[in-house]
Specification:
heterodimer, A: 530 residues, mainly alpha, 4 domains, 2% strand, B: 449 residues, zinc (chain B)
């Protein structure tokens, strides 16, 4: 009987056309004979299979000396990762805790505690990091050397290598090679990382190739200089004011204006000062009448967005970019608080104050930010926000921020508070947490539906101190519905508070699981149990 | 045994019928919704606050394991049972402490004990009601009728295969599933479901691309061999005839099997995984008695979309009886009475690649239709490849391709390039890893998610 290939050939063409070697009889008999032979053949083939030659073995993953996760924490991670993929099938959440948003917190906390991710979960962890860029830094840190080793085997996980390579390159001095040969994302990551470690070296690297970069890339690289910005960057930025690309010029100007000692800042101060003077009635604004080429070179956009007057537009940009130290000197040695209290003539106050707000944020001037924010408005007072309070808050020290927002919420409730809450430090301070929970309770008593506050609820699940769980738990009891309330709201509120309590308790548990001390003299040597 | 050895949380979670249940169960694994919990002997119980006014009564018999919950869920075990077991798994200092069984628990455990006692006594009381059919003559007549119908099916199949080979397979990839589905339907009519499912799979071979003609000839030839084997069954030795009957699709009543000889052993649960088609979910559980060098495969079925009922904690060692289905190569078995559970104390001894392939070859001599031969490989390393991964001996050059896609990532993560022990199934397309023991762990890590 013929070889296996001979049999396959006959089978393909059919025994009417081609018979296997040595088979006699008509086509039907030959077909049966072919099947008999093939049956013997397939068993011979399968039973006689010999080992293949081993391919190229991967290298050994570097050892990881970090401790394994405590048992409960390992399980928690498995659950959070499984939850990520199962989330698609979620309808109304009812009273069950919200796990999806806990993964980032978990990863950050586990990283702080210095654990290594369990090996068995590395594929799921890398998949999660692939899907969500905000998880990458913590996920990759946890995954550690074995995660990097594994990622090298799967093209889907290339991103890990890029990040990892960048880190390694920055440390090992291969930065130049990566800078010259890397992909755009790799280069941006490298530049940002180097700015943190050695801002001057990063600038030198950028200068080495600046002229050959495309305009879009130049813009992004320039933007990366925000990290670690210092007077040492001024010379480079000043040159960039002559760039061919308008966006690059504007960004360079913006960066220079954040350096109050820069020549550009001085030029802008000069221009702004000439527009603002002090009269006995208050501040007088005389906005510029033209936007000359020198102003444009310093980043002033000549054409206002529709609906804004040219002169107000130019004026705003000048004040934005002028160092705030300009003003006490110009306005009779007053403090920022006193300056802000001054009347501004001819309806220029909104423009002037808004520009100062932007300048305070850009120059990270806490004194001015505090002055512009003022004390939180009193309950009766209308909330006339100057500029963007959330942005001003973001440059104040954490505790001060929390206290301000707490007082604001106590006075005005939650409807305007979402932006402010999202800039507060996590977990929220005790007074802030109490203010939020109280405001939610008041909203419930007011008879509105909880989903009107779903944004704040979502934030609270992530940011409330887990210690507040007991305070929230009190509210989970379905209260009497107010006569003028929305029908059924009470039940929904109770459910929403239950979910919040559940999530908070889960967070507390989750963090506690990470802090469980490892059994001393652990009998598990070597790599982690999975 | 005073109380059962606590399971690990992983073992509990492996009982979950699906990912959603696992998630829901884990959410309930906090003390908050629970009250009146306790453990006594093999029973764990508790009251779980649900959305309704009265809490659900949840009780688990660890010996089965068996579950009962007053919740309306059709999932099995339900999330309450899983949550309860997770709490219990936290250990002696955990939230579930020894207590006296409350009345509702006691009623259930007593009823279960009674049933078990009845079962235990049934075989000893001669051919009791459960052991034999009500009317042996009628049953024999039914069996004879079926044998004749299956014979007719096998003859027809032989004819169809011969026709196919006469005309050639070349057109098979164009015709798609239709002709195969039609033949499969004829086999179902002939009461030969084993033949039917093989025929249906044949229809999918062309879609696998590459060298499909060779694979199709293999499968066609094996189908031919099976049909011929059935038609000539009178002349086969009994064990091989048993194999042929099982492959053709005759089933044996599990109660009848257990009434016969059982084998008591220390069975470690090595793997549990489900596969589903549009009608049926099939769960495969591999048990291994290392002392006796014996594997057993338990199959459990659920209607489409429902998880099969049998669940066993992965890695645990059951002291239990099993009964094998009659076969020249006894693998499939049914689980009989259990006498206790313990945790594994060591990693099973495995073999190198070449020895595993030899064993697979020898097994094929007993069952040519074998497509999953259980094997523990020791000191192997997963190796990535452009198209397929391999597992290779750490100290030699022998390798086997890894079958299927997916498990290699976790296997590789566990290995990190270092040798490990892996359990899996050897088949015609390679080694399908199911669990692995990374260095220093005696509890296997499942590779199927």
């Amino acid at each position: 009987m013929g070889s296996w290939d001979d049999l396959v050939g006959s089978a393909l063409l059919g025994t009417e056309r081609r018979r296997p070697a040595g088979v006699v009889g008509d086509a039907e008999e030959a077909a049966v004979a072919l099947l008999d032979a093939a049956a013997a053949g397939v068993i011979r083939r399968r039973a006689g299979v010999t080992p293949a030659a081993a391919g190229t073995r991967p290298g050994l993953a570097p050892a990881d000396r970090r401790p394994d996760l405590p048992e409960a924490a390992r399980r928690r991670l498995a659950m959070l990762l499984a939850d990520r993929t199962a989330d698609a099938a979620r309808g109304r959440r009812g009273a069950t805790p919200n796990l999806a948003e806990l993964l980032p917190q978990w990863l950050a906390a586990a990283r702080r505690e210095g654990y290594a991710a369990p090996h068995a979960l590395l594929p799921a962890l890398l998949d999660a990091a692939r899907a969500r860029t905000d998880l990458r830094t913590d996920a990759l840190a946890l995954a550690g050397p074995r995660g990097l080793w594994l990622a090298a085997l799967n093209p889907d996980w290339k991103f890990a290598l890029r990040a990892g390579q960048g880190a390694a390159a920055a440390e090992e001095g291969d930065a130049e090679q990566l800078w010259e040969e890397g992909l755009f994302a790799e280069r941006i990551a490298l530049l940002t990382r180097m700015r943190l470690a050695d801002a001057a070296a990063a600038l030198a690297l950028l200068e080495s190739s600046w002229r050959t970069e495309r305009a879009e890339d130049r813009l992004m690289f320039l933007d990366a200089l925000r990290t670690g910005l210092s007077p040492a960057d001024e010379e480079f930025l000043e040159q960039a004011l002559n760039d061919r690309s308008r966006n690059v010029r504007t960004t360079a100007a913006e960066l220079l204006s954040a350096l109050p000692g820069s020549a550009l800042a001085a030029r802008m101060a000069e221009r702004a000062r000439s527009c603002v003077s002090l009269s006995p009635e208050g501040i007088v604004v005389e906005a510029p009448y033209a936007c000359d080429p020198a102003m444009e070179r310093d980043g002033v956009a000549a054409k206002p967005p529709s609906g804004r007057g040219e002169r107000a537009w130019w004026f705003g940009q000048l004040v934005d970019a002028a160092p705030l130290s300009t003003w006490p000197a110009r306005l009779g040695g007053r403090t920022p608080e006193e300056i802000i209290a001054l009347p501004v003539l001819d309806d220029w106050q909104p423009d002037l104050h808004a520009a100062w707000c932007r300048a305070a944020v850009r120059q990270r001037d806490t004194g001015w930010a505090r002055a512009l924010l003022g004390p939180p408005p009193k309950p009766a007072a209308p909330v006339t926000a100057v500029g963007d309070p959330a942005k001003l808050l973001s440059i104040l020290p954490g505790p001060e921020r929390g206290a301000w927002v707490a007082e604001f919420i106590a006075a005005h409730g939650l409807s305007e508070a979402f932006q402010m809450l999202s800039v507060c430090a996590v977990p929220w301070s005790r007074p802030l947490g109490r203010a939020v929970v109280d405001a939610l309770d008041i909203a419930r008593e007011g008879g509105s539906y909880p989903w009107s506050f779903s944004g704040v609820m979502g934030l609270a699940e992530r940011c409330l101190d887990p210690d507040a769980a007991d305070q929230v738990a009190v509210l989970t009891a379905a209260a009497e519905e107010p006569p003028d309330g929305s029908p059924g709201a009470g039940t929904y509120w109770s459910e929403a508070f239950q979910r919040l309590t559940g999530t908070l308790r889960l967070r507390a548990l989750m963090l506690a699981e990470l802090r469980v001390p490892q059994p001393s003299g652990s009998s598990i040597p070597g790599p982690g149990r999975a | 045994m005073d109380t059962e050895a606590r399971w690990t949380a992983d073992q509990v979670l492996a009982l979950a019928p699906d990912a959603a249940s696992r998630k829901a169960g884990a959410r309930l694994a906090t003390p908050a919704p629970w009250s009146g919990t306790g453990v006594a002997g093999a029973a764990v119980w508790g009251l779980c606050k649900g959305s309704g006014r009265t809490p659900y009564q949840t009780v688990v018999d660890l010996g089965g394991p068996a579950f009962r919950c007053s919740c309306p869920s059709r999932k099995f075990p339900c999330k309450h049972a899983l949550g309860l077991l997770l709490l219990w798994a936290e250990g002696d200092g955990g939230p579930i402490a020894a207590a006296a069984e409350p009345e509702w628990v006691e009623q259930w455990t007593a009823a279960r004990r009674k049933k078990a006692d009845e079962r235990a006594q049934a075989p000893s009381s001669g051919s009791g009601k459960a052991a034999g059919p009500a009317d042996p003559d009628a049953a024999r007549r039914r069996a004879d009728r079926r044998a004749i119908r299956v014979e007719g099916g096998a003859v027809e199949l032989e004819q169809r295969l011969a026709d196919l080979l006469r005309g050639g397979l070349a057109g098979a990839d164009r015709d798609g599933y239709r002709q195969w589905d039609e033949i499969a339907a004829r086999m179902v009519d002939a009461q030969a479901p084993g033949l039917a499912s093989r025929v249906r799979e044949l229809g999918a071979v062309t879609a696998t691309g590459g060298d499909w003609p060779s694979r199709m000839l293999e499968e066609t030839a094996l189908l031919h061999l099976l049909a011929r084997g059935y038609l000539g069954r009178e002349r086969l030795p009994d064990p091989l005839a048993g194999t042929v009957r099982a492959r053709v699709g005759f089933t044996v009543d599990s109660a009848e099997l257990l009434a016969g000889a059982t084998i008591r052993g220390h069975w470690q649960v090595l793997a549990q995984y489900d596969s589903a088609d549009d009608r049926l979910t099939t769960r495969r559980i591999w048990l291994y008695d290392e002392g006796a060098g014996r594997f057993a495969l338990l199959l459990s079925f659920g209607a489409a979309g429902r998880a099969p009922e049998l669940v066993l904690p992965l890695g645990a060692v059951l002291e239990a009886e099993v009964a094998y289905y009659p076969s020249a190569l006894p693998l499939r078995a049914v689980l009989g009475p259990q006498h206790g559970t313990a945790q594994a104390e060591s990693v099973p001894r495995g073999m190198p690649v070449a020895a595993a392939l030899d064993a697979y070859g020898a097994a094929l001599a007993d069952d040519p239709w074998l497509d999953a031969w259980p094997v523990v490989l020791a000191d192997v390393v997963p190796i990535p490849g452009a198209t397929r991964w391999q597992v290779a001996d750490a100290t030699g050059e022998d390798a086997i391709p890894i079958a299927g896609a997916g498990p290699q990532w976790r296997l590789a993560a566990l290995s990190g390039g270092h040798p490990l022990t892996a359990f899996g199934e050897l088949g015609p397309t390679g080694f399908r890893p199911l669990c692995a023991w990374p260095a220093a762990s005696v509890i296997p890590t499942p590779l199927t998610a």
